[in-house]
Amino acid sequence: MPSYELTCDACGLSFEVALQRFLREEDRVCPGCAGTSCTQRLGGFVTARARRDDPAPRVTGFAGRGCGCAPGRHAH
Question: How far apart are CA 9 and CA 28, in angstroms?
Fold first, then answer.
């Protein structure tokens, strides 16, 4: 599922929007001030799929530095 990282040009709030489609202009609304001028930042992606020998989903993906996910476990 794509995850879009945005920064509001009006108030500077950084936020994330997760959608099952491409980001549209109407999705660029700041949750803090309702501003509609938001700049997209380089983000990442996450996928979940089961391995053949393990029915439980395994989460894999890429995230930019400083995402707060499992420090030291990123493949950059």
Answer: 11
CA distance 34 to 41: 18
Domain membership of residue 75 (yes or no) is: no
Biggest alpha carbon distance in the chain?
50
In a domain, 70, yes or no: no
Number of folded domains that form the chain: 1
Laid out side by side, the sheet with 54-62 consists of: 14-18, 2-8, 38-51, 54-62
Q: Is position 19 within any domain?
A: yes
pTM for the whole structure? 0.56
Task: Give, for all 76 residues of the chain, the pLDDT tens digit.
Answer: 678 999 999 999 999 998 888 889 999 999 999 999 999 987 666 566 666 776 665 555 554 444 444 444 334 3
Question: Is 48 within a domain?
Answer: yes
